[in-house]
């Protein structure tokens, strides 16, 4: 019995250190999250600062605090900070090879914040993946698709891909194509399209609406309309102008043809 008590007593300091380390980890995680959230709110409440910087800074502060917590936990077990630095220095090559993807994402995250090819709330296409930017942190960019699907893109892939930002400018051009019958007047149809466009207050007068005959198809004369509007109105303008032109064509007797198929039967 005395031997068992002696063994338990030998492990008592280790158990106490483990409990202390667990408490430090929990408190450190809570503090890191709280301070990161405070940094995000303070930065995002300043109109002159881009919210993207707030999210990135909050993520950076959180990870720095967690790194300090990790050093403190190791110190509880008697491992000094200088020893940690020495160990990391000796193992730097192995760590660098093992974490090269993570370090690449971290470096890319810094580049994305510095050069800002996209910001929070903008609709972008990153290497063929499209969505609205919801978050940009140290390692990843979070996108949300129009049907509310979350997509996580590593910053390394984002920075190394072609980025198409549909929200970078305040205005966008809406391109619409309408087909009319060969027997109808192209000039009259173009006038109808222009009248519909000019009647819509969302369509800008500079650049002015543009309508031209752009193709002679197999069964239709194709008219292309190029209309400028605010970027936020793009989809509404595209859908509503299409509907309005169809109704105007019907009212003016302009027909929209559809492909026809002809069957030829040979008699023996």
UniProtKB/TrEMBL annotation:
Domain Mechanosensitive ion channel MscS C-terminal: 174-256
Aminoacyl-tRNA synthetase is among the record's keywords: no
Membrane topology: Multi-pass membrane protein
Keyword annotations from UniProtKB, A to Z: Cell inner membrane, Cell membrane, Ion channel, Ion transport, Membrane, Transmembrane, Transmembrane helix, Transport
Transmembrane segments: 21-39, 60-79, 85-115
Domain Mechanosensitive ion channel transmembrane helices 2/3: 61-100
SUPFAM superfamilies reported in the protein's UniProt record: Mechanosensitive channel protein MscS (YggB), C-terminal domain, Mechanosensitive channel protein MscS (YggB), transmembrane region, Sm-like ribonucleoproteins
Summary of the function given for this chain in its UniProt record: Mechanosensitive channel that participates in the regulation of osmotic pressure changes within the cell, opening in response to stretch forces in the membrane lipid bilayer, without the need for other proteins. Contributes to normal resistance to hypoosmotic shock. Forms an ion channel of 1.0 nanosiemens conductance with a slight preference for anions.
Self-association state and partner proteins as the record states: Homoheptamer.
Record protein name field: Small-conductance mechanosensitive channel
Provenance organism: Ruegeria denitrificans
């Amino acid at each position: 019995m005395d031997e068992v008590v002696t063994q338990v007593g030998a492990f008592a300091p280790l158990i106490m250190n483990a409990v202390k380390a667990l408490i430090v980890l929990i408190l450190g995680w809570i503090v890191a999250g709280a301070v990161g959230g405070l940094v995000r709110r303070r930065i995002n409440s300043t109109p002159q600062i881009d919210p993207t910087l707030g999210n990135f800074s909050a993520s950076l502060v959180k990870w720095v605090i967690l790194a300090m917590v990790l050093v403190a936990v190791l110190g509880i077990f008697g491992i000094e900070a200088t020893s940690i630095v020495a160990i990391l220095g000796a193992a730097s090559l192995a760590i660098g090879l093992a974490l090269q993807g993570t370090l690449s994402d971290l470096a890319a995250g810094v580049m994305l914040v510095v050069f800002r090819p996209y910001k929070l709330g903008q609709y972008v296409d990153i290497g063929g993946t499209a969505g609205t930017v919801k978050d940009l942190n140290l390692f990843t960019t979070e996108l949300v698709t129009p049907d509310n699907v979350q997509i996580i893109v590593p910053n390394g892939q984002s920075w190394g891909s072609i980025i198409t930002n549909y929200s970078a400018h305040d205005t966008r051009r809406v391109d619409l194509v309408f087909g009319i019958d060969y027997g109808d007047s192209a000039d009259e149809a173009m006038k109808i399209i222009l009248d519909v466009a000019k009647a819509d207050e969302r369509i800008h007068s500079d650049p002015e609406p543009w309508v031209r005959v752009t193709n002679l198809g197999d069964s239709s004369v194709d008219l292309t309309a190029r209309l400028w509007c605010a970027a936020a109105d793009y989809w509404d303008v595209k859908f509503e102008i299409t509907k309005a032109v169809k109704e105007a064509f019907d009212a003016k007797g302009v027909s929209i043809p559809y492909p026809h198929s002809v069957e030829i039967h040979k008699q023996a």
